Amino acid sequence: MAAPKAGLFLLLPGAWPVWLGLALCSVPGGGGSSGEQGTCGCSASRGSGSGEAAAWRYSQEANAPQQPARGTLVGGQMVSIPAGVFTMGTDEPAIQQDGEGPARRVRLSRFYMDRYEVSNAEFEKFVDATGYLTEAEKYGDSFVFEGMLSERVKTEIHQAVAAAPWWLPVKGANWRHPEGPDSDISNRMEHPVLHVSWNDAVAYCVWAGKRLPTEAEWEYSCRGGLENRLFPWGNKLCPKRQHYANIWQGDFPTNNTGEDGFKGTAPVSAFPPNGYGLYNVVGNAWEWTADWWAVHHSAEEMHNPKGPLSGTDKVKKGGSYMCHKSYCYRYRCAARSQNTPDSSASNLGFRCAADTLLDSL
Ligand SMILES: *[C@@H]1O[C@H](CO)[C@@H](O)[C@H](O)[C@H]1NC(C)=O
Ligand SMILES: [Ca+2]
Ligand SMILES: [Ca+2]
């Protein structure tokens, strides 16, 4: 059984050079205890929040093989996502207070989705063309995970988020300087842009002739044509002992082993794409969506839902390189979290969607 299965990898498109070189998963199936589900940056914003434990049930039958639908690649950067109906959310929520349930049928029209998280290189084109100043640059600071900071930067900080003390507001941290003034992105141009607020993300997408995806579009894209699976590729965290996403291995927040090849962000094209050809949908950087945040949802079937009419926070999806099952089991398609639209952090980025394609794409 094992040998022919392993051989299948050779038949798949050869676009995963980074992933192929990675170490094997030491925790097949994503074992480890379901502990507290807190704020692994999931709520680090110019506001904050916290969480509590939730059980997670592994479903055998839900793990049965299923043929994913195929998105159609259009141009280099966007994928045509077919119209369809899918099950949004879950009736087995892992994090109760996040409003992951109920599972409900959602019908969507066709749309386009960026293959990749927006990279530093792409964001720089926007800034060069428009002179745009991000909110982190205007505020003069942004949240950075303590584990990424130099000792010099850390000594200058005297304030932290009570519920998540590993988040520090760093003066001079922004998309060009992800860990503060003594850091830069010169060797990370193909990594996701970070420290962009929801407002910044909208400005970029509008400039590109696009828009942010709704939460429903994002989740449909995440599922890649599979029904009721935990991850974009299925229910096993590490099928065939391979890493499929950039998350955290080791004890959070003290020991990041980087077993998947990356302690921080990875290039936006790293790891295998999902059934629609989308990369790093879960993990790497959190991704803003267009929707306002609410935790109560109707179980009725919806058509192109756009979320609540108003709110204080925006929905972000997918988790990040900082997510670990013990603390932030949010690298699942149904998982969700929120931040105020002006907040920014060192694990939060975005990708755009569109109704039509511009010729330039
Ligand atoms: C980090 O975790 C790995 C794997 O569990 C372990 O081998 C290593 O000793 C740990 N390092 C530290 C500094 O605790
Ligand atoms: Ca990682
Ligand atoms: Ca992502």
TrEMBL record:
**Keyword Nucleus found:** no
What the entry lists under Pfam families is as follows: FGE-sulfatase (PF03781)
* Pathway(s) this gene product operates in, as recorded in its UniProt entry: Protein modification; sulfatase oxidation
UniProt signal peptide: 1-25
Instruction: Give the main localization category.
Output: endoplasmic reticulum
What GO annotations for molecular function exist for this entry?
cupric ion binding; formylglycine-generating oxidase activity; identical protein binding
Q: Which InterPro entries match?
A: CTDL_fold, Sulfatase_Mod_Factor_Kinase, SUMF_dom, SUMF_sf
Q: Which GO terms describe its biological process?
A: post-translational protein modification
Provide the alphabetized UniProt keywords: Calcium, Copper, Disulfide bond, Endoplasmic reticulum, Glycoprotein, Metal-binding, Oxidoreductase, Signal
Record domain Sulfatase-modifying factor enzyme-like: where: 77-353
Compartments, record wording: Endoplasmic reticulum lumen
Q: Which GO cellular component does the record give, naming just one?
A: endoplasmic reticulum lumen
Its quaternary organisation is: Monomer, homodimer and heterodimer with SUMF2.
Q: What does this protein do?
A: Oxidase that catalyzes the conversion of cysteine to 3-oxoalanine on target proteins, using molecular oxygen and an unidentified reducing agent. 3-oxoalanine modification, which is also named formylglycine (fGly), occurs in the maturation of arylsulfatases and some alkaline phosphatases that use the hydrated form of 3-oxoalanine as a catalytic nucleophile. Known substrates include GALNS, ARSA, STS and ARSE.
Full protein name: Formylglycine-generating enzyme
Q: Could you tell me which species this protein originates from?
A: Sphenodon punctatus
High-level lineage: Eukaryota, Metazoa, Chordata, Craniata, Vertebrata
